[in-house]
From TrEMBL:
<comment type="similarity">
    <text>Belongs to the glycosyl hydrolase 5 (cellulase A) family.</text>
</comment>
<dbReference type="InterPro" id="IPR017853">
    <property type="entry name" value="GH"/>
</dbReference>
<protein>
    <recommendedName>
        <fullName>cellulase</fullName>
        <ecNumber>3.2.1.4</ecNumber>
    </recommendedName>
</protein>
<dbReference type="InterPro" id="IPR001547">
    <property type="entry name" value="Glyco_hydro_5"/>
</dbReference>
<keyword id="KW-0326">Glycosidase</keyword>
<dbReference type="InterPro" id="IPR008979">
    <property type="entry name" value="Galactose-bd-like_sf"/>
</dbReference>
<dbReference type="Pfam" id="PF00150">
    <property type="entry name" value="Cellulase"/>
</dbReference>
<dbReference type="InterPro" id="IPR005084">
    <property type="entry name" value="CBM6"/>
</dbReference>
<dbReference type="Pfam" id="PF03422">
    <property type="entry name" value="CBM_6"/>
</dbReference>
<dbReference type="GO" id="GO:0008810">
    <property type="term" value="F:cellulase activity"/>
</dbReference>
<feature type="domain" description="CBM6">
    <location>
        <begin position="31"/>
        <end position="155"/>
    </location>
</feature>
<dbReference type="GO" id="GO:0000272">
    <property type="term" value="P:polysaccharide catabolic process"/>
</dbReference>
<dbReference type="InterPro" id="IPR018087">
    <property type="entry name" value="Glyco_hydro_5_CS"/>
</dbReference>
<dbReference type="GO" id="GO:0030246">
    <property type="term" value="F:carbohydrate binding"/>
</dbReference>
<keyword id="KW-0732">Signal</keyword>
<feature type="signal peptide">
    <location>
        <begin position="1"/>
        <end position="23"/>
    </location>
</feature>
<keyword id="KW-0378">Hydrolase</keyword>
Amino acid sequence: MVRTRWCAALVTVLAAASLPFSAQPASAAAVQYEAENAVISQGVVEANHAGFTGSGFVNYDNVTGSYVEYTVTAAQAGQHTLTFRYANGTTANRPLDVTVNGTLAADDLAFAGTGAWTTWRTVTATVNLAAGTNKIRTTAVTANGGPNADSLSVDGGGGGPVTGTPVEINGKLHVCGVKLCNQYGKPIQLRGMSTHGIQWYSQCVKTASLDALATDWKADILRVAMYIQEGGYESNPRKYTDMMHNYIEEATKRGMYVLVDWHQLDPGDPNANLSLAKTFFAEIAQRHKDKVNIIYDVANEPNNVTWARVKSYAEQIIPVIRAQDPDSVVFLGTHGWSTFGISDGRDENDILNNPVNATNIMYTFHFYAASHQDEHYDALARTADRIPVFITEFGTQTYTGDGGNDFAYSQKYLDLLAAKKIGWTNWNFSDDSRSGAVFKSGTCAGNSFTGTSMLKPAGVWVRDRIRTPDDFPTG
């Protein structure tokens, strides 16, 4: 949500440097951003006056400094027209200051009375936007606060497709209903890769491979698998925290979302590592809280543990993140190796009847198509209509990450995920000897990662499915 105050003054904002690849073009027509989906300070979302668009409007508190902040995307740098839809049932002007990326762009923009709170009018301002993501804040400048804010529309700035990286187009993500939604409040599907354990395969996560993942594979998201045991974080917390910091920055440079994976596996009860997790996530969230591309995964594969224990862990670790980063999405592994309990002889009702007491979270599900077929598939299909789900790990092989590929059942899963707009990351982006690693053995010793000559069959298959055009709605 955003602050408000607007005026017709024009300010020049330097265009942000483009990141190295383009995502699927979208329409350059005016894009509407609902105020209720913005960042709000000292205001509330209401729906008690008819005529609004979307699900409601923002009622500013009657104080100076209350604001609504929209995150918008411009296809190109230059002049753009902002159109604010509002209602003001008083006779007094309720001016707002409009800032773009922290710089005043419109001083005391007038929002005159409209005659009734159900009568909606528009006010426009012309500003310069940077190419890519911009923060537009509208801030009240009098003790009366601002008008009721319904929406902001941003024109296309002269036409042309909306291009950019996944992060440039989608901005800050949030959970809406049971979907992962972009800055426009539209459900999206992210597709990408998971690293193997960074304690073993850091040589596969370097400049050349990440460039290939972003530009050749056209991935939307990188999952960084940081094991806790097995020579991982527990053995040297400082080293692995610093490695994670670096990978977050590298994904950010390339315009990809980054999933910080707390890869607990054995012991299967995540509470065994709770103290370590609190230390790690407090530092990660504090440093990266202002990034729009970060997602936290607080438990990889809880196993041989009850859902009640997993829920207890989640309700202790999520507040640690929220204390630093109140807005980013948090993922949580589910019992039964993240199968909603199916692989432990339970089912999704454990979760549905006792959900985690937190907002803006998603529950994760893992499948390996040669092992996890009808029972797991059906559970996923049912559950994804009830709670927010993300597939943080899947393979076309058996659950060992090895063996023959079942591409037919894998495609059945991916068709379901596409239909329900459920995001996924594939296991794994390494040259491990098993069939689930996408690169042939020895590939990571070099710097050639584009094309298919260095890929195993599973790598060719998943690369083709990541490269298909994204569907990132903006209007």
